[in-house]
Design brief:
four-stranded antiparallel beta sheet; 12 helices; three-stranded mixed beta sheet; 391 residues
Length: 391
């Protein structure tokens, strides 16, 4: 089985600056004019997805030897934060895809890497991570999906739910039980590269409060046959560790989304507070508003520093589940709090869909739930802290 260690990557400062500048121009030219239309109508942003593929975002963290950009986590987090500060949902389209790719790149066989990663990198094949089931979210060991070996194939049955890119994606890293009787339970789980095909159907698309335009869907597997060659790593029983092995990067991504939402909410509130007048002066000159802005800017800055602290540790090849957990927890809560405070600054206009701030509020709430609830994050942080500081 391939090593779980991720490669340490770096990028020159001028290269990073040029790439981020290109992202900024793309946001201004292509994203901002259409975001409200797509969000309000829950429309898949097909043109933007094609443009993201052209920019290489579907291969952002995939190694250059497989046709990806091979970006370090710090640069990737900056990209995610910038896009999220204008439209968070877009980042989910390539992030879920990249977690799938990371599982193959870190744990796959040489043959699997050669076959799948170049197509993942270009976006020719796009997808995500299929873990969650109706009765198994945070407690992944409770999944019921089974994969039974039948000659050179596996026959898979079960249901997944809340899968990002479930409708528009074409391939998923699929977690199933190859040994339902194993103890401990995680040793009976395996991860597969699962392209859509006979026996693999998509159920309903969920109508969500926020995180619009990106599809979150139910998946149904009925006697779905998959070649044994699609078992990631080629060894049964490694799926739980393979699936959770990408959560550090996933949580850094969610933290970066939280940073973007916190900073975007601050930006909108700052602009509005200087334009809106009451009692003969801009509301930014009222102490009550200044108190809110002072907290918001501090909160956004702290979220950014925690996120890049975790990303830098990841890039150094260090274990960083505590750092990633702290970043995810704090940044997502910062996103919620900043978006709420911005709503208060906008006053009655915050409830109008003619203003963007209501989208930030709707989107921010998801960040406290996705990639492990914040309640779970606090437990992870505490356990790791105690391990590092024994009495």
């Amino acid at each position: 089985m391939a090593s779980a260690a991720h490669s340490v990557r770096t990028i020159e400062a001028d290269q990073e600056a040029a790439f981020l500048d290109a992202i900024d121009r793309w946001i201004e030219r292509e994203v901002r004019p259409v975001v409200m239309h797509h969000d309000h109508n829950d429309l898949w942003p097909a043109e933007l997805v094609d443009q993201m593929a052209e920019m290489g975002l579907f291969g952002a963290t995939i190694g250059q030897e497989y046709g990806g950009l091979g970006l370090p986590a710090t640069t990737y987090a900056k990209i995610v934060a910038r896009i999220s500060s204008y439209w968070m949902a877009l980042t989910g389209i390539f992030n879920s895809h990249l977690i799938m790719a990371a599982a193959v790149e870190r744990f796959g066989t040489p043959e699997q890497k050669a076959e799948w990663l170049p197509k993942f990198a270009t976006g020719e094949i796009r997808g995500g991570l299929a873990l969650t089931e109706p009765d198994a979210g945070t407690d992944l060991q409770s999944i019921r999906m089974t994969a039974r070996r039948d000659g050179d194939d596996y026959v898979i049955n079960g249901t997944k739910t809340w899968i990002s890119n479930g409708i528009k994606g074409s391939c998923f890293a699929l977690l199933a039980k190859t040994n339902p009787d194993a103890e401990p339970r995680y040793k009976g789980m395996s991860l597969f590269i699962a392209p859509k095909g006979p026996g693999f159907s998509v159920g309903k698309k969920f109508d969500k409060l926020g995180y619009k335009a990106i599809d979150s869907a139910e998946m149904i597997f009925e006697d779905y046959r998959l070649p044994a060659a699609n078992l990631i790593g080629g060894v049964e029983g490694e799926g739980f560790l393979q699936a959770t092995g990408g959560l550090e990067l996933g949580r850094i991504n969610v933290a970066a989304r939280g940073v973007g939402l916190a900073e975007g909410s601050l930006r909108l509130a700052t602009e509005y507070a200087q334009l809106r007048k009451t009692f003969g002066k801009p509301i930014a000159q009222h102490q009550a508003i200044q108190l809110k802005l002072g907290e918001m800017v501090t909160r956004a800055r702290a979220a950014r520093l925690l996120t890049f602290d975790a990303a830098e540790a990841y890039d150094r090849g260090e274990r960083c589940d505590m750092e990633a957990g702290m970043a995810k927890y704090f940044a997502s809560e910062a996103a919620v709090r900043n978006s709420e405070e911005a709503m208060r600054i906008f006053g009655g206009y915050s409830y109008s869909k003619e203003y963007e701030i209501e989208r930030y509020y709707r989107d921010a709430l998801l960040m406290c739930i996705g990639e492990g609830t914040n309640e779970m994050q606090r437990m992870i942080i505490a356990k790791q802290w105690l391990k590092r500081n024994p009495a």
